[in-house]
Amino acid sequence: MKPQYARACIYPKDIQNITGKSYKQSRLYLNRIKAHLGRQPAQWVSIEEFCEYSGLKPEHVSQFIR
Fold first, then answer.
1. With contact defined as beta carbons under 8 Å apart, do 44 and 7 qualify?
2. What pLDDT, on the 0 to 100 scale, is given for residue 4?
């Protein structure tokens, strides 16, 4: 069963809540994901892409996204 998300993209504040890192470190982590995926700075990263890159399960991430 796929978890239901409130939105499709992930923000640095979400990464901060999930990892416990600072906002700046979360923003840099999101930039690394974008570089890995070949995205432009203005493009979004989906929650599924974040889970693939980080190795976290979507069920765990969905608890912090709501």
1. no
2. 65
Residues 4, 36: Cα–Cα separation, whole Å: 26
Structural domain boundaries in the chain: 12-65
Instruction: Tell me the C-alpha distance between 24 and 12, whole Å.
Output: 8
Q: What is the pTM of this model?
A: 0.86
7 band by pLDDT with thresholds 50, 70 and 90: confident
- Tens digit of each residue's pLDDT (9 = 90 or more) over 28-61: 999 999 999 999 999 999 999 999 999 999 989 9
Question: Is residue 15 within 8 Å of 21, Cβ to Cβ?
Answer: yes
Query: Which residues, in sequence order, are CB contacts of 56 under 8 Å at separation 6+?
Result: 18, 50
Instruction: Return d(Cα 20, Cα 59) in angstroms, integer.
Output: 18
